[in-house]
Design brief:
Number of domains: 1
Largest sheet: none
CATH superfamily: Ribosomal protein L20, C-terminal domain
Order of helices and strands: HHHHH
Number of strands: 0
Distance between the termini: 85 Å
CATH topology: c-terminal domain of poly(a) binding protein
Structural class: mainly alpha
CATH class: Mainly Alpha
Helix content: over 70%
Length: about 110
């Protein structure tokens, strides 16, 4: 019995990978083995960095809240502690936005917890 090869599926798989490699530099965009490795590595980075992005944004929000709180004579930890004690449920994303783009609203929050 002759060997059966599904060339249609194989070609489709290669086409899909090569399409993803579009825009890469040098052999990464047009040599199958190099492109396949680059795409696999890129997808690993994409998965990893979707998780890391959340951590990075949290760090940015904390820095912005800290800067805003220090303008009103408080540290970040003191500010967050008093915020929880006062029962104000604003997350870090909202607080960072207030501190950066709406300083008068942030000042009102600070006044409320003092």
């Amino acid at each position: 019995m002759p060997r059966s090869v599904n060339n249609v599926a194989s070609r489709a798989k290669r086409k899909r990978i090569m399409k993803l490699a579009k825009g890469f530099f040098g052999r990464k965009k047009n040599v199958w083995t190099v492109a396949k490795n680059a795409i696999e590595k890129g997808l690993v980075y994409a998965y990893r960095d979707r998780k890391a992005k959340k951590r990075e944004f949290r760090a940015v929000w904390i820095q912005r809240i800290n800067a805003g709180a220090r303008l009103h004579g408080m540290s970040y930890s003191e500010f967050m502690g008093k915020l929880k004690g006062a029962g104000i449920d604003l997350n870090r994303k909202v607080l960072a936005d207030l501190a950066m783009n709406h300083p008068e609203a942030f000042k009102a929050v600070v006044a409320k917890i003092k």
